[in-house]
Amino acid sequence: MHTARHTQQQHTKTMTNPNDNVRGVGFLVLALLIISLQAVAVKWISGDYPVLQIVIVRSLVALPFTLLFYRYEGRRGLPTTSRRKLEIWRGLFLFLSYTTFMMGLVALPLADVSAIRNSGPLMITLLSVIVLGETVGPRRWAALFIGFLGVLLIVRPGTGAFNLGSIFVLVSVFLYALTVMVTRKLHTTDSSATMSYYSTLVYLVGALILAPLVILAGEQPGAHPSIAFLFRPWAMPTPLDFAIMASLGLVWAAWMYFLARAYSLAQASVAAPFEYLTLPIDIVWGFLIWGEVPTWMTWVGAALTIASGMYVLVRARR
Q1: Calculated CA dihedral for residues 65, 67, 72, 77, nearest 10 degrees
Q2: If I label 199, which of 68, 87, 142, 226 is the partner at 20 to 30 A Cα–Cα?
Q3: How does DSSP assign 116-184, residue by residue?
Q4: Looking at the domain assignment, is residue 16 inside a domain?
Q5: pLDDT tens figures, 174-186
Q6: What is the enclosing helix (H) or strand (E) of 193?
Q7: What is the dihedral of CA 136, 140, 142, 143, to 10 degrees?
Q8: What is the extent of the structural domain holding 218?
């Protein structure tokens, strides 16, 4: 009887896992649609303000929204955690990831940035094996290798088409993958709203610590656009620009919440390939707003990374 009950419990657990994966992917797609607005807004105002000024305004607005999400979960008071070190690491990874992402964003077409970020699911799948112990067979290893070849076609290191902004985007992708790994470890004890709150808090503190150092260093004449974005002098924003910066707080809080929900429910190796949907989303934004058209090398590289990601997804589902 005990064996039968145990078998039934195992069967129920197996049956609920696919549903969790579907729900997790749904949250991930919603997060991608929301965060695409951030890239558009940052690229729009990046010529007039430094990256840390945008980050601080956005984080100040985002922090109260994370508390609203916490209330929505039926909780009271301030979020608490028994795994503070992991929460701090998660917030630090996010801070560094999206600061370097925005630095790369100002130097590259939106489609190129998105194509390079296609390596995110590949890195997440790789780290899911190393950090989480998830199983990946030889065919998926081959798919990951092909995907990274696609990234090289987009970045084109050692050629005249190489842009330093690509390195900043790649660094941000790696740090983002580490964020996902920490999220998977935290979800057993901390809610999505709790993770969003602590990440935003660490993000704000990190920006406030770094900002005075950057201001003291001063503007860097003739610097690469990515570097110039970091050291650009602070300026009083126009009412419209301030509204854009402030609205990024809501975008940021909503994205962090739905991202945490996504990777708390779905296996990293299952949900990660769906992040390739950022490419068509960003291509549309780039063409409609700035008239950007991806080069054929970007198309080929993106096709390789997307194909490898879809194959990884199929193998993971089997």
Answers
A1: -160
A2: 226
A3: HHTHHHHHHHHHHHHTT-----HHHHHHHHHHHHHHHHHH-TTSTT--HHHHHHHHHHHHHHHHHHHHH
A4: no
A5: 998 898 888 888 8
A6: helix 192-217
A7: -140
A8: 34-317
Residues in the chain: 318
The residue type at 70: Y
CB 43 within 8 Å of CB 105: yes
Domain count for the chain, please give it: 1
Are 111 and 291 in contact, with CB atoms under 8 Å apart? no
Which amino acid is it at 95? F
Q: In the structure encoding, which two tokens stand for residue 239, read together? A: 């009412």
Q: What is the Cα–Cα distance from 64 to 59, expressed in whole angstroms?
A: 9
- 253-279, pLDDT tens digit by residue? 778 778 878 888 888 767 767 777 888
Q: Are 198 and 139 in contact (CB under 8 A)?
A: no
Q: What tokens were used for 294? A: 């991806």
Structure tokens that stand for 149 in this block: 């070849």
In a domain, 10, yes or no: no
Asked whether residue 20 is assigned to any structural domain, the reply reads: no
Which residues 6+ apart lie within 8 Å of 277 measured at CB?
29, 32
Measured CA to CA, the distance from residue 176 to residue 46 in angstroms comes to: 22
What is the DSSP-derived secondary structure letter of residue 276? G
Predicted TM-score (pTM) of this structure? 0.79
Cβ atoms of 270 and 25 closer than 8 Å: yes
Under a CB-based contact definition with an 8 Å cutoff, are residues 259 and 28 in contact?
yes
Could you tell me if residue 101 is inside a domain? Answer: yes
